[in-house]
Amino acid sequence: MFDKILIANRGEIACRVIRTCRRLGIKTVAVYSEADATALHVEMADEAVFVGPPPSAQSYLLIERIVEACKATGAQAVHPGYGFLSENTQFAQALADAGIVFIGPPAGAIAAMGDKITSKKLAKEAGVSTVPGHMGLIEDAEEAVGLARDIGYPVMIKATAGGGGKGMRVAHDDQEMRDGFRAARSEAKSSFADDRVFIEKFIEEPRHIEIQVLADTHGNVIHLGERECSIQRRHQKVIEEAPSPVMDPETRSRMGEQAKALARAVDYCSAGTVEFIMDRDKSFFFLEMNTRLQVEHPVTELVTGLDLVEQMIRVAAGEELPLTQSDVALDGWALEARVYAEDPLRGFLPSIGRLSYYREPEALDDVRVDSGVVEGSEITMYYDPMIAKLCSWGRNREDALETMQAALDSYYVRGINHNMAFLADVMGTPRFRDGRLSTNFIPEEYPDGFQGAQMDEAVRATLLVVSAVLQRATADREARIAGQVEGHEKGVGNDWVVLMEDEHVPVHVTRSDEAIWRVALSEGEVQVQSSWKPGEPLFHGRISGRNVIVQVDRRGARWLLTHGGTSRQLLVLRPHAAKLAALMPKKQPPDLSKYLLSPMPGLLVQLLVEEGMPVKAGEELAIVEAMKMENVLRAEQDGKVVKLHAEPGSNLAVDQAILEFE
To answer: Which of 24, 31, 284, 335 has a beta carbon 3.0–4.6 Å from 278's, enabling a disulfide?
Structure first.
């Protein structure tokens, strides 16, 4: 076994590898850029080595720096995590040349599976089901049209060296084929310096299902069942689960055996994932093989009881797998939701800033959080915006879903925008609850984008009741500390009115003892049990026997409550004050239509207009960079630029004015 391992990564995956190494008694070395000098993975590791400036191309992706760090610290092996250098054959070879063990598959397996055309040919030779298509090189758009006609529309055009949805198009007819072929080649060349593309049949109502494999250097190969990864946005996974709601034992066995056959065909060892696409009839076809640990590996760990990082380390150290295929059993159900620093209400634009408050779910059984941040951590523009992976386990899918919703209610993050309301809304839809999933789920369920979580009657009632209890508990506390003579304290009334949006809801609140309340509404009376005290960010309680968790923020005299993905501001007043409040005029928001506002925090890379210049609707005005992505801002209507409020190189805040129109 190794004495010291270097983790060639950052964030939550680096922390996750370090935790396993600690349990195994292995010392760890972290690498870090200037932006990560105070990051959690640096603090957790036994040693840390600085590798360069914030951009990953100048730090985490520099092979020679990582190799030098291994030599300087005496690290015998490297775990690459995922992303960065995890599937880089040159990195694996450089480590081998330096006598350092790469905790992953051989360079040959990485190379074979890294090229989509080569991998599909190998899969076909190994007896793996492949999507009908043309894997050879395509010279021009007209050849592409002819091939598409032979395969049958619709078809998908994919970049050979692609990933993350880049260089990918769907064509339903000849014209879309011509346009898509040119666009895919151009995008592939820009993104991967490789303009080769291939064409395959586009599967309608597709499900994305992957098989986890484990292989050692002694010829043993097993699979650990499947993961359903169909909930995706722009080809990026959002929610994963194990097992799949659609899977049956026979299909699982056939898919697993094909995954093992492919692993054997490339002499694979370590943990790896073979990805398939499944149609409505449960026919499945090979997509690709990821020769690394997957982001969603925790759900497999939760249902198998195995530590995949430990198995990768043991395989790399030359050990045999500790179990055979017949030993693999799936216990219960697991879900994973990726928590991102982004704003779903603004088209999922990235959100950067400091985590001013950060509390992971506590006091909840069967919840796992893989994160690389703590309160005070900075979410920067340089790296992936994932904050954490939130996982839940249950005896069945319904239990796992219930636990996940409670975990989302308990996860308290402030300082940046995040996607937890969107995650809660997705998992609350009838279609998700029924397991009717496909990779088209999000565009079909949210055709106009995410407009905010829908508040059902149960959530509405919870917010009303909890706001009344919060107000009454706060009023009781204020009465006790008002400095009045004992026995002559100011009384707190039982009658209140809750103002939520346009509703004025009368409530009657009484207290049975320190932790039991009765709240009467027009629909009836409920009992609330809670030990919440003013200032606590989470309300834990039971309403008529039902467990409830609500996030609590104070906004002046109002309560901002978050539950079930829904956030609402509520004002709780005495009846007379509520009558007066109803007479108050509503403040109108300022007219910002004459300004171009930055939709996200980021760097103003370029201004494409000048003062006095007329512009047309749709014309490009500015480019803002955030999270390694350039975002083009366009004019929404015709106008004339009268003033510039920012200049190139400026760091912009959300809604900061960039320029002003006449």
So the answer is: 284
